[in-house]
Amino acid sequence: MSTSTGVTTGVIPKYELRCRECGKSWGNQPRSICDDCFSPLEITYDYDAIRASFTRERIVQGPPSMWRYADLLPLPENFRPTVPAGFTPLLKAPRLAQRLGAKNLYIKNDAVCLPTLSFKDRVVAVALAQARNFGFDTVACSSTGNLANSVAAQAARNGFHAWIFIPADLEPAKIIGTQVFGAKLVRIAGSYDQVNRLCSQIADERHWGFVNVNLRPYYAEGSKTVGFEIAEQLGWRLPDNIVVPMAGGSLITKIKKAFDELIQLGLVEPKPVKFFGAQATGCSPISTAVKTGNAEIEPQKPATLARSLAIGNPADGHYAIKTITKTGGWAEDVSDPELVASIQLLAETEGIFTETAGGVTVGCARKLYRQDRIASDDTTVLCITGNGLKTTDALAGKYEMEAPIPPKIAEFDKYLDKALDVPQISVAETVEA
Amino acid sequence: MTITVQIPTALRRLTAGTDRITCSANNLGELFSVLDGKFPELKPHLRDEAGEIRRFLNVYVNEEDIRFLGGSTYAFQDGDEVLLVPSIAGGNSDFATEAMENLKLRATITRLRDR
User: Fold this and answer.
1) Does residue A420 sit in helix, strand or coil?
2) Residue B114 falls within a domain, yes or no?
3) pLDDT of amino acid B93
4) Which of A357, A410, A428, B45 has the fewest CB atoms nearer than 10 Å to its CB?
5) Contacting residues of B for A318, CB less than 8 Å apart
6) Residue A322 with chain B: CB contacts under 8 Å
7) What is the pLDDT of residues A178-191, one digit of tens each?
8) Mind listing the pLDDT tens digit for each residue in A20-50?
9) Beta carbons of B11 and B42 less than 8 angstroms apart
10) Does a structural domain hold residue B111?
11) Interface test with A, best of B88, B101, B103, B106 (most A CBs within 10 A)
C-alpha cells in the first residue's frame, strides 16, 4: 500500500507504557493512568534495541517529515504515515534578534506544520496511528482549537468518526476549521478545564480514542519531534536556550525528553540547555509557580486573548515546572496588549504571522533578554507553534481599512503625496517605547 | 449534610465496583474519612503521607474544582455532587535519562553476574 508520503517507518521500536511513579509496566493499551497508584503513564523505550538504527546517517535518508524519527516514536508495527507532518523550518531571525537585543536567534516555525498549521499535527499523527491499532472507529479530544483542527482533519484523512469538544468562546476560524472536515463539534458552555474534565468522564463511559485522555501517553510523544528537528537543523547540536509556550505544559517536557534521548543515543554532544516557559498573564499558573518558587500548580480561571494557552489547571504543570527549574531556566508571562504587539513584531521583522500563542512566546523572550536571563550571544530558539490566520480577531482594530481609490495613476500620485506626508511608524515600534 | 460522591472507573477496583455513594460530611477531610472507612483500599490513593490531596487526584463540587471553593476549608452544602477525577498528565522529562540509567545499571549487573 502506498501513501502520499511514500514512506514506511523503519525499524519498529520496542516501547511500552510504564508508570512514572511506581514503575509498573502496562504494555501497550489505551490508558493514561496507572491503576495501582493513579500516577501518569509514560512511554519508555528499549534504547539499546534502537541505538543501532537511530543514527544521523539513517535519519538524514528519511522523509522530510517527523517520520524520519519514527524509531523514537510509539508507532504500531507496519504503520504507514498518511500525513507529512513536521520537519518545519528552523529560521535564523536576525531582524527580530536586533529588536530583542539578541545575536543568535532562531525561530522554529510550526505555523506552517502540515496539515493544519500547528504543532498539534505532530501529536495527533501519533495518537491516530495508535487509535487504529487499538481498534477505535471514533476519535475525540478536548481542545482549545488547534488540536480540534488537527484531529478533525486527520480523522477525515484516516476514515475515523471524530467528536471534538471545545469551550464555546473559541475563535471563529478554529470552529470553521474543525467543522469543515466533517467532525462533530460539541461546544461546551464553560472553560477548557471544564471541557477537559467532562471529556475524562465521557472517556470513562465510551469506547472512543480520546487523543488527549486515554491515548495521551502516545500522543504526547509526537511533541518530541520538535526537539529532534531543532537539533538536526542546528547541525546536530543543541541550543543554549529554548523558549516554549505553555498551555497544558506537555510540549516543554517532551522537547527536554527529545534532547535527552539524542544525548543518550550519542547523536549530539551533551550540553546543558536552559528551558524557558511562556504564558499569558491572564492564564499563568505555571509561570506564577516558577516565579514564586512553588513546585505545585495553583489553578487559575483563564482570562486572556491567547485562547490556545488558556488552560488554568495544566495537566503537566508540575512536570513543566520541574523541567524549567532543573535546567536553570525561567518562566515569564505577558499581557494581552504585549502579546498582540509581539505578533506584529514577529510579522514585521521576519515575515512570520503567528497566532496568539506565538505572540506570547516572542513577548516573553523579549522580557527574558531584558532581564538578562537569556544572554545575547547564546544560541536561542523560540518555538512558534501556531498560525496567525486562525486568530485574526486578536488584531481587530489594529489596521485601518482605507477608502478605495479610483484606478487612475493621477489618483495614486495624489494618494502617495498624502501618504508620504504622514510619518510611518510601525506598530511594533510603538510598543517598545 | 447529605452529599453524593461519584467514583470514576479507575478507582472502582478499590470500592468493590461501587460507582456512587451518598454520605454525610461537612468538608473534604470528613468526606475522605468516610471513604477511608468504607473503602480501606482506597485510602492511600486519596491523600499523601502529609495528609494533602494526592497530586494526580482532582476533586470537583457541582462541576467546580474544589480549589476554587476554598479546598479543604469548603463547607459542603446539602445536595452537593462531588466528583473524583484522576488527572491526565503526560510525563516527566527525566524519564529518558532515568530509563537509560536503569538500562546501564541492568547491563552492569548482568556483566558482574556473568563474570
Assistant:
1) helix
2) no
3) 47
4) A410
5) 55, 89
6) 92-94
7) 999 999 999 999 99
8) 888 999 999 999 988 888 888 999 999 999 9
9) yes
10) no
11) B88
Separation in Å, CA of A214 to nearest CA in chain B: 8
Q: Judge: domain A90-117+223-394, CATH 1.20.810.10.
A: no
Mean pLDDT computed over every residue of chain A: 93
Could you tell me the CATH number of the domain that includes residue B82?
Answer: 3.10.20.30
| Tens-place pLDDT, residues B19-31 | 999 999 999 999 9
**Predicted confidence band of residue B11 (pLDDT cuts 50, 70, 90):** confident
Report how far residue B93's alpha carbon sits from residue B90's, in angstroms, rounded to the nearest whole number.
10
Predicted ipTM beyond 0.85: no
- In-domain check, residue B34: yes
Residues in chain A within 8 Å Cβ distance of B55: 296, 318
Q: Which CATH architecture has domain A15-84+120-219?
A: 3-Layer(aba) Sandwich (3.40)
Residue at grid coordinates 482549537: A145
Identify the residue among A15, A36, A44, A246 best suited for mutation to test binding to B, counting B beta carbons within 10 A and taking the highest.
A44
Q: Which of B11, B91, B107 sits opposite A42 (nearest CB)?
A: B91
Residue B109 in domain: no
Identify the residue whose cell numbers are 494533602. B52
For residue B56, what are the domain limits?
2-88
- The residue among A9 and A421 whose pLDDT is bigger is A421
Q: How many CB pairs under 8 A join A and B?
A: 123
- pTM, whole model, 2 decimals? 0.91
B84, B5 Cβ separation under 8 angstroms: yes
Q: What is the mean pLDDT of residues A189-217?
A: 93
Nearest residue, CB atoms, B95 vs list A20, A316, A318: A20
Q: Is A240 exposed, middle or buried (0-12, 13-18, 19+ CB in 10 A)?
A: middle
| Cβ A359 vs Cβ A333: under 8 Å | no
Domains A15-84+120-219 and A90-117+223-394 share a fold: yes
Confidence band for B84, pLDDT divided at 50, 70 and 90:
very high
Contact residues on chain B for A249, CB-CB shorter than 8 A: 90
Evaluate whether A33 touches B86 at the Cβ level (below 8 Å).
Answer: yes
Higher pLDDT, A231 or A11: A231
Shortest Cα–Cα distance, B2 to chain A (Å)? 23
Count of domains forming chain B: 1
- HEC readout, chain B: CEEEEECCHHHHCCCCCCCEEEEECCCHHHHHHHHHHHCCCCHHHHECCCCCECCCEEEEECCEEHHHHCHHHCCCCCCCEEEEEECCCCCCCCHHHHHHHHHHHHHHHHHHHHC
Chain A CA closest to residue B53: A296
Residue ranges of domains in chain A: 15-84+120-219, 90-117+223-394, 404-432
Strand order in the sheet with A161-167: A184-188, A161-167, A138-142, A209-210
pLDDT, tens only, A51-108 = 999 999 999 999 999 999 999 999 999 899 999 999 999 999 999 999 999 999 999 9
